[in-house]
Please model this.
Amino acid sequence: RAEEDRSSYEVCKETADWLRARTAQHPKTAIICGSGLGDLADVLEKKAVFPYEDIPHFPRSTVAGHAGRLVFGELSGQPCVCMQGRFHCYEGYSGSTVTFPIRVFSLLGVEVLITTNAAGGLNHHFQVGDIMFIRDHISMFGLGGQNPLRGPNDERLGVRFPCMSDAYDPDLLSLAMESAQELGFQSFVHAGVYCMLAGPSYETIAESRVLQALGADAAGMSTVPEVIVARHCGLRVLGLSLITNRAATSYSSPEEASHEAVLRVSVARAEALCRLLARLTARLGES
Ligand code: 6GU
Model:
């Protein structure tokens, strides 16, 4: 079946207006829950929940570990909206479909995007279960021409040539590292470079070695399209990766990546992540 074109301002506005008419909440922060990290949305208070299939023009989640609901509510007293389930290019969705919710959030008045994902560790200092705040990204997908902003540019959404040298907000990153320290999490929290591959197959050993040589600290299959569109429409971005496994880099001890292992580790770290995001959101509310 042909995919709906969700790239226009009018379609984004229709969805934003539909949601605005059904919730009294005015979220300033949007949170994308990555693979197995859907619990983050469950801790919100005063929840209003919208299954994706009920929202006009919203795509559907097709991956295990992604529930497919938009959850409005309060985290640490701050109004937030959570995506319990995101969209990926490997599902066959175009860049404008994957990033459609970001534009809707922007039209709803959201100012900060916190995006989470499960990723494979490439940095030798990272352990399974560590959290990496994203300082910068490399997109193999984007460098190859698959940018979500490809196509005509509507100035109502953003500028033609958006800057990406400040994609991950340095102040938000500092606040995140401080919040981790306050919770005593510094032993398993890092900052680093996230590399996006299209997936859905995991990297070969040779590919993982290439990514290490390029300066990537973690590899995943998401996040970059949403960040590009968030910057296009002027949101400030904080990204984090939960290191759910190590990318295979050795022929003598190959690590086998599996989605089950990814989900297991995210469940194990979900509580710490919830506390970290709650702390961070409280700090954001003070600033
Ligand atoms: Cl090892 N690679 C990629 N591309 N995505 C992942 C992953 C690895 N682990 C979780 N997500």
Notes: The first helix runs from residue 9 to 20.
